[in-house]
Amino acid sequence: MTGLDLPVPGRALAIGAHGDDVEFACGATLAKWAAAGSEVHLILLTDGSKGTWDPGADLDTLVEIRRQEQKAAAVALGLASVGFLDLVDGELGSGAAERAAVCAAIRRARPQLVLGHDPWKRYRLHPDHRHAGWLTLDAVVAARDPHFFPDQGLEPHRPEQLLLFEAEVEDHFEQVDGYLEAKLEALLCHRSQWRSTMGIEEDSLDAAAQRAAFVARVTKEADATGRRARLDRPAEAFKLIERV
Fold first, then answer.
1. SS3 148
2. Which residues, at least 6 apart from 13, have a Cβ–Cβ distance to it below 8 Å?
3. 128 inside domain
């Protein structure tokens, strides 16, 4: 069975491995909910310190650039807040210490709905995406039960629903017509990723055409997702877990 358009959550929390992961996967959905009055928060797990093809880059500077890009992207989507765990990019684990940190973030935000990477996605190459998925699931379980990490001094919290993006099995779609512009604006805030992720060479004579091609690519993907849901409009896809 395929679901369509959840009721707008009062509060939602998206958890992403890297700057721009959430924007690619569910940026339009978050913008839609925020515009409808939802209090939407974002937690970024890694510091982005490996997010460049420049071997001579100053990594401390890169980390700060990526932090500011993420803040700008959050504004473009209308998010209530963005938080940074600053775990090392490319070296993300899913052990007890990382789980405790994400658990604390969930307990503080107290979301009705959590969004995160699907760790069961087959043939996923990037280890951070796999670990981010496990962290989200494990931290949701920890956050709901009082005997996990009691030293945090935070009240337990059980979200009502979990949406996994980049899903191996898609069974829920959010219609996002009218919100692709916000998604694209947020994505383009990540200028340090233009070359490596979006195919835009900022100083190239072809930069305008490359940017237009990127916009067309994102739009085409959203339209294709809508067609998978038998819609005549763009959409974003998820795996919905309701027994949380």
1. coil
2. 40, 41, 42, 43, 105, 106, 109, 111, 113, 114, 115, 159
3. yes
Q: Are 156 and 146 in contact (CB under 8 A)?
A: yes
Condensed to tens digits (0 to 9), the pLDDT of residues 132-178 reads 999 999 999 999 999 999 999 999 999 999 999 999 999 999 999 99
- Looking up tokens 């990723």, which residue turns up? 193
The verdict on pTM exceeding 0.85 is yes
Residue 1 lies in a domain: no
Residues 112 and 11 sit within 8 Å (Cβ to Cβ): yes
What residues have CB less than 8 Å from 95, skipping those under 6 apart?
Answer: none
How far is the C-alpha of 2 from the C-alpha of 173, rounded, in Å?
Answer: 8
> Residue 126 falls within a domain, yes or no?
yes
For the chain, the domain total comes to 1
CATH number for the domain spanning 44: value is 3.40.50.10320
- Please tell me the distance from the alpha carbon of residue 136 to that of residue 197, in angstroms, as a whole number: 24
Range of the domain at 189: 9-241
